[in-house]
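dude i think i finally got it to work??
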Amino acid sequence: MGSRKQNKATELKAARKNIASAKLNNCPTSPRKMRLVADMIRGMEVSKALFALKNNGKEASIRLEKLLVSALSNWESKNEGVSMDEKELIVQTISVDSGRMLKRVQPAPQGRAHRIRKRSNHVTLVVGEAHIVDNSSLTEVKEVK
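look at this
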């Protein structure tokens, strides 16, 4: 492997150490209901997100709380010797995708049958360090009127 590729590989390896992910597959909640809770915690600090999930009354919040705790333990196992209090962790990305659909039949009037689709979803959650943007390094662009 060339030196350029090797340098890029070591950079990617170092970048992956700062993030941790967790997946929840075939969760028996509809994706629409899960996205309501997922949108609430996207971009939040981890401690605030855990507090918000514990105090939310929706069933999806219980499942996402468990998933967030799993992602945090994955981060701890990747970064041994570093406490979570020192680092400012945030929920970087959370995506809810539709999963397997169970098709059931419900009797309808006049001998007909209606199909019921019991939806499930897949949730992917990524926890990482918050990147602080230094405003002094940014150049300001002035508009000419």
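The chain has one domain: 19-132.
im so relieved honestly
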